[in-house]
């Protein structure tokens, strides 16, 4: 836990798990609690898709590219730094998927965040999520998925959405088109707030209210994360599971 100008100090724990049904882990995470380029810290979750090895290539390559771009960015604004990095990763994944038939059609979700002096900056593409957890649990990101669009339009309710057969169809992904529209959120963090970033392998297996209870039942970040993974697997573990927990220490 290193301070950045004596202001921004965070601790974090991350873990991915293959789950109980998949042959390959296509989730990829990155955490850095010390300054990276002009950001004081960086956290990224990516959930890849695509045949054979393409999905795990997409998620790993996307995260590594974002990290490299952030590290060398000369910009100062967190949103601009993240947007540039994600756009660059999108172009790269798109290019590779068009050049190599083994990688054809690959893509990945990405959710990234950085905590700067009491503010959390969040970037999102796809249906991986970021929550802020205090006495309540609040989903900050909005899923870019067919089912979420249906909920927003009033076509189906939240409850039906949870088990909808088209649940895995996402409407935005890294690598799907030549440019990507990234959602940004800015959250003022209160003392004691915790950040949870995860792939849908967690949220499809555990209800939000249960996630809140599990997180609050453990003291250490590592114990919280491992309990979430274990519970998702006990509930069926139908997909890879990625979890990052971040605790600002003001």
Flag low-confidence runs.
1-6
Largest sheet: 6 strands, antiparallel
What is the CATH class designation? Alpha Beta
> What quaternary form is this?
single chain
Rg from C-alpha positions? 17 Å
Secondary-structure element order, as H and E? EEEHHEEEEEHHEEHHHE
SSE-based structural type: alpha+beta
CATH superfamily: PPM-type phosphatase domain
Distance between the termini: 12 Å
Globally, the shape reads globular
CATH architecture classification name: 4-Layer Sandwich
Task: Write the CATH fold name.
Answer: Phosphatase 2c, domain 1
Written description of the protein model:
This protein is α+β, with helices and mostly antiparallel strands. The chain has a single domain, classed as 4-Layer Sandwich (Phosphatase 2c, domain 1), CATH 3.60.40. The protein has seven helices and eleven strands. The chain has helices at residues 54-72, 78-99, 146-152, 158-162, 200-203, 208-216, 221-234; strands at residues 10-17, 27-32, 42-49, 107-108, 110-116, 119-125, 129-133, 137-139, 183-188, 194-198, 241-248. Strands 2, 3, 4, 5, 6 and 9 form a six-stranded antiparallel β-sheet that branches. The chain has a five-stranded antiparallel β-sheet with strand order 1-11-10-7-8. Strand 5 and strand 6 form a beta hairpin. Helix 1 packs antiparallel against helix 2. The longest helix has 22 residues, at 78-99. It is globular and about 50 Å long. The N and C termini lie close together (12 Å). The model is unreliable at 1-6 (pLDDT under 50).
């Amino acid at each position: 836990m290193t301070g950045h100008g004596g202001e921004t100090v965070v601790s974090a724990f991350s873990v991915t798990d293959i789950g109980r049904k998949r042959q390959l882990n296509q989730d990829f995470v990155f955490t850095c609690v010390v300054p990276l380029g002009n950001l004081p810290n960086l956290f990224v979750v990516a959930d890849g898709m695509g045949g054979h090895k393409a999905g795990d290539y997409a998620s790993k390559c996307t995260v590594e590219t974002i990290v490299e771009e952030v590290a060398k960015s000369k910009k100062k604004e967190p949103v601009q730094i993240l947007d540039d990095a994600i756009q660059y990763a999108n172009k790269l994944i798109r290019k590779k998927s068009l050049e190599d038939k083994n990688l054809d059609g690959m893509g990945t979700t990405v959710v990234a965040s950085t905590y700067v002096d009491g503010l959390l900056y969040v970037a999102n593409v796809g249906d991986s999520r970021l929550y802020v957890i205090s006495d309540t649990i609040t989903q900050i990101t909005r899923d870019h998925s067919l089912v979420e669009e249906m909920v927003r339009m009033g076509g189906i309710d939240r409850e039906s959405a949870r088990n909808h057969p088209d649940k895995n169809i996402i409407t935005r992904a890294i690598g799907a088109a030549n440019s990507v529209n990234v959602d940004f959120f800015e959250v003022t963090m209160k003392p004691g707030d915790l950040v949870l970033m995860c792939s849908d392998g967690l949220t499809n297996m555990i209800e939000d209210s249960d996630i809140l209870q599990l997180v609050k039942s453990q003291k250490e970040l590592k114990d919280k994360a491992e309990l979430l993974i274990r519970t998702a697997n006990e509930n069926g573990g139908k997909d890879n599971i990625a979890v990052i927990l971040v605790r600002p220490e003001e």
